[in-house]
Amino acid sequence: MKNKAVLVFLFSCLAAGGFFALGQFLPDEIAQREQWEKFLETADIVKSELIGEGVTKPWKLYLKKGDIEKKAAWKNPEKRRGDFVDSWKYEIAAYRLDKLIGLNMVPITIEREFEVKKGTFKKGALSLWADSKYNLLDVMEKNIPIPKAALKQTDDTKYIARFWDSLIANDDRTQENFRYTEDWRTIIIDHSRAFRFSGEYKKKLINGANGIKRKDDGGPYLILRVPRALYEKVMALDFGRIKQAVGPYLTDEEVEAIVARLPLIKNEIAAMIKLYGEDKVLYEK
After folding, report:
1. What was the pLDDT predicted at 7?
2. Strand runs (DSSP E) across 92-223, as ranges?
3. What is each CA distance from 180 to 2, 85, 154, 280, in whole angstroms?
4. CATH fold of the domain at 134-283
5. How far is CA 24 from CA 63, 133, 180, 260, in A?
6. Closest CA to 162 of 141, 145, 178, 183
7. CA–CA gap between residue 99 and residue 107 (Å, rounded)
8. Where are the domains of the chain?
9. CA 91, CA 77: separation in Å to the nearest integer?
10. What pTM does this model have?
11. HSE (CB half, 13 Å, CA atoms) of 86?
12. What is the pLDDT of residue 280?
C-alpha cells in the first residue's frame, strides 16, 4: 500500500507539472515533509552534543516522540563576517525557497529554541539529519568511484546546485556540504552564509561564465544544464511570492537581491543555449 501511495503521489505531481530534482529526496519523503516539520517542532530532545565541525558550532540533537527517534542538526549563528552575514535564519529561508521552486535538495528545517546551557535558551535552525554515506570531499580525496549508472545523475545535480547557489547567492558551497546517499542521491546542506545582498551579488551571479566564483586556473563554474521545469519555476518568481514563502527569515533587501538576480540567470541560461542548443541546456525530467 505504501508503494502504491507513493506512485499515486508521484503521478499526481507529474500531471500537475511537478518537478523532482534527479536523485534527491524521494516522493514519499517529500509527501511527508509537513509531518516531519511538526516532529521537529514538538519532539523531545533526549540527548545533545556538539558536532565539533564548522565555525558555527552546530549541535547534534537526538529527538524522540512516541516510538519515533531521529537526529537533527541545530545551529544559531547571527553575525556579520566581513562583507556578509552568517545567520541561522538563512537555513530556514533556503528550505522554504527549496519547497517553493521544487528543488527538493535541502533538508527539512524549522525554527526551534534549544537550551545551549542550563537555563539559557536560544532560537536557531533545526534541520532533520541528512542521512548520507559520503560527502564530495570523501569522494575526491579517497578516490571513491561513482558507479557508472549514477554518473549522469551526480553530474546533473552538480549543475543544479550551481544554479541554486547562483539564485540564493551562496558563495560558501564546500565539498563537505555536498552529500551523497548510499544510492547516490545528492543532498546539500549549510546555507547560513547564503542570501548575500551587497551590490556585487546583485550585479553578478556566483556561478556562470562571468560568475564571481572562479576555479584555480581562473576558469568559470558554468551552469551547463538545468531541468526546464526548475528553470521555469525560478523565472516565475517575484518579490511577493518569495516573501510569502520565506516569511520573516529574509529581509526585504535580501528578497530584492534575489529578484535582481533573476534577469542575470535568464541571460546566463540564454548564453548557454546559444552555445549548446536549448535541448541540451534545458532538459525534460
Report:
1. 37
2. 109-117, 120-128, 134-135, 178-180, 186-188
3. 25, 28, 9, 25
4. 1.10.1070
5. 24, 14, 9, 28
6. 178
7. 10
8. 19-128, 134-283
9. 10
10. 0.90
11. 14
12. 97
